[in-house]
Amino acid sequence: MLESVIQNFFNALQWGSFYSLIALGYTLVYGVLTLINFAHGDIFMVGAYIAFFVSTFIIANMSGLPGWAVMTLTIPLTMILTACVGVTLERIAYRPLRRKGANRLYVVITALMCGLILENGNLALLGASRKSFPPLVDKVIYTVGSISMTNLKIAVIFSAIMVFILLQFIVTKTKIGMAMRAISYDKFAVPLMGIPIDTIIVFTFILGSSMAGLAGLLYSLSYPILDPYMGALIGWKAFIAAVVGGIGDIRGAFLGGFLLGFIEILVVAFFPSTFRDLIAFSILLIILIYKPTGLFGVAKTTKI
């Protein structure tokens, strides 16, 4: 019984890592722009496809490279190219609305439309057939008793923790992080202080989208089947995790992702898998009933 609990604990850490990486992108954009970027889950999907094409290109043209070298090249290229997709969305879709002072509802609808464009654009360009992600890493299984851990699972968990530490450092200890926090507090006064608001917003989208690209790569290595709609459900769940943790707070997004991962894995361990989403979302709903701002969220007050 104890060994089963420990095994499920590690499985939940891996699953929660995916949610946390995506939720961090949601909370970064919301913290700066008060914008829920509903296209973020589809940016995760685009990141997975970018990782697929980058890795297959490297393998085809540099056949002598070992797997770890291909992986070393694929990670930064995937993050950079996925960040370009996020910045393009900000430049084409969100910035014109922001400059015109559009109502927040129109921006949210635009974000939903951007997600649909990414999904159906992928479907139109690449077709509905699923793609199999190449095995870049040789799987190594570490076994202690009846508990098993793969090297990939350890890498996923470690990556999520390191990303959280890096983002926390950027936001709390750097000048650009201070500017991001200033914009979230008062975006109208910030330009008067000489802070280039568009530059800070672009940097925020670079951070959030690159994290989605990294999550897409790690997810594809763990579950190597790609399809155009793979980012829809996991994106919505990551958004819910960010809300439960306290959207706008990096700690909340990180812990909210792991909380959702733990709940889902434990539900599957003790109940039929068809009950997973029902029980998981019911628990999260109860948390929000008693803590509407999320675990780390703080209610905002409007000064008159």
Automatic annotation (TrEMBL):
Main subcellular location of this protein, as a coarse class: membrane
A single GO cellular-component term on record: plasma membrane
UniProt-annotated location(s): Cell membrane
Transmembrane segments: 12-36, 43-62, 68-93, 105-128, 140-167, 188-208, 228-247, 254-272, 278-299
Keyword Transmembrane helix (UniProt): yes
Gene Ontology biological process: D-alanine transmembrane transport; L-alanine transport; L-isoleucine import across plasma membrane
Keywords associated with the record: Amino-acid transport, Cell inner membrane, Cell membrane, Membrane, Transmembrane, Transmembrane helix, Transport
Membrane topology: Multi-pass membrane protein
GO MF annotations, alphabetized: L-isoleucine transmembrane transporter activity; L-leucine transmembrane transporter activity; L-phenylalanine transmembrane transporter activity; L-valine transmembrane transporter activity
PANTHER family registered for this protein in UniProt: BRANCHED-CHAIN AMINO ACID TRANSPORT SYSTEM PERMEASE PROTEIN LIVH, HIGH-AFFINITY BRANCHED-CHAIN AMINO ACID TRANSPORT SYSTEM PERMEASE PROTEIN LIVH
Similarity comment text for this entry: Belongs to the binding-protein-dependent transport system permease family. LivHM subfamily.
Protein name, entry field: ABC transporter, permease protein
